[in-house]
Amino acid sequence: MSEPLDIVILGGGTAGWMAATALVSLIPQTRCRVRLIESEEIGIVGVGEATFPEIRNFNDAIGIDEAEMMRATNAAFKLGIQFVDWGFKGSRYIHPFGVHGPVGMDHIFHHRWLRARRLGLKGDIQDFSFAAQAARDCRFELPETRSTRIDSAYTYAYHFDAGLYAVYLRGLAERRGVVRTEGKVKDVVQDSETGDIRSLLLESGETISGDLFIDCSGFRSLLLGKTLGVGWEDWSKWLPCDRAVAVPSERDELSPYTRSTAMEAGWRWRIPLQHRTGNGYVFSTSFIDEDEAAASLMRSLETKALAEPRMLKFQAGRRVLNWANNCVAIGLAGGFLEPLESTSIYLIQVAIMQLVPLLPGRSIDPRLRDEFNRLIDLQYERIRDFLILHYKLNSREDAEIWRYCAAMDVPESLTRKIELFRHSAIIERYRDGLFPPTSWLSVFIGQGLIPEGYSPLADTMPGESLVTHMDAFRADILDRVEEMRRHERFIDLYCGAEPAVAPMGAEVRL
Amino acid sequence: MTRRIEQVVIVGADAPAWMAAAAFQRSVSNAGIRVRVIELPTLLQPADAYSALPELAGFHRRVGLEERLLFSLCKAVPIAGQRFSNWSGAAPPFIHGYDRPPPPAAGLGLTQLWIKGRQKGLRTEFENFSLGAVAAKAGRVPVPSEGAELRSTFGYNFDAAAYSALLRHFTMQGGVESKAASVADVEMDGDRITAIILGDGERVEADLFVDASGPQAVLIGRMPETEFLSWRAWLPCDRMLVASAKALAPLPAFSQISAFRQGWIGLFPLQDRTAVVAAYDSRQISDQDLLNDLPALANLPISGDAVVSSLAQGIRRRTWVGNCVAVGESAFSLEPLDAVQLHIAHYCISQLMTLFPVEAGTFPEAALYDRIIRRAAINLRDFQFAHFKLNHRFDMPLWDGCRDAAVPETLQRKLDIFAARGRIALYDDETFQEHAWESLLLGHGLMPQSYDPRVDAIPEQEHIAKIQARLNDIVGLVEAMAPVDDFIAGMDLQRQAEVTALG
Question: What is the pTM for the complete model shown?
Answer without folding.
Answer: 0.95
